[in-house]
Sequence to fold (224 residues):
Amino acid sequence: MREAGFFDEDRPWNHNRHRNADIETYLPAIEAIIRRGGWVVRLGDPTMTRLPVMKGVIDYALSEVRADWMDVYLIAAARFYLGMASGPSSTAVAFGVPTLGTNWFPLGPCPYCRGDIFLPKLIRLRNDGRLLSIAEALAPPLFAAMEPAFFDRQGLDVVDNTPEDIADATLEMLDVLDARAIYSAEDERRQSAFRVAADPMNVGLAPRVARDFLARHPELIEGC
Fold:
């Protein structure tokens, strides 16, 4: 989970904070993986927030045995990669590892592959609290924007995924990998509507938006 330390983004002159997330919001997802018999290996660097000691969790980011080749191996050997829009996610793509992209930002680019699932960050109007539809969030000048000062000038807040959003999407990914995922006709209608609204360049979107997240946020496809 991307944090501020690696690129000194916690300094006054660096404000790339919307690409980051709070690792504590991932604890329910970690627990869900462990309950399903999995192990979690957290990648990163020593500036990251330490995870609580948990059975089935290896906080490799703070380990003395970190190595560049091990970073690549751990991603390549994973059953699936749970992460954000940062460099390591491209390694998962290179090795064909299914990706659960969470707190995905900036909006516009998304995970690349069929079988991937993702959760975009939401954008909220500061004056009335309304969440933008995905079509509004991807219209100029917002497409691929990520500078906090820009969002401040536009009167917009960027909203992180909730622990519930992340945990539900994790369970969905596990069900997909176990061939147990069930999607209703309404789920598929929402997916189709999102794919149309979230594809202003008409390139074709391969991944799915997390099922429960999309059901929880009908405003994303309002009018579609």
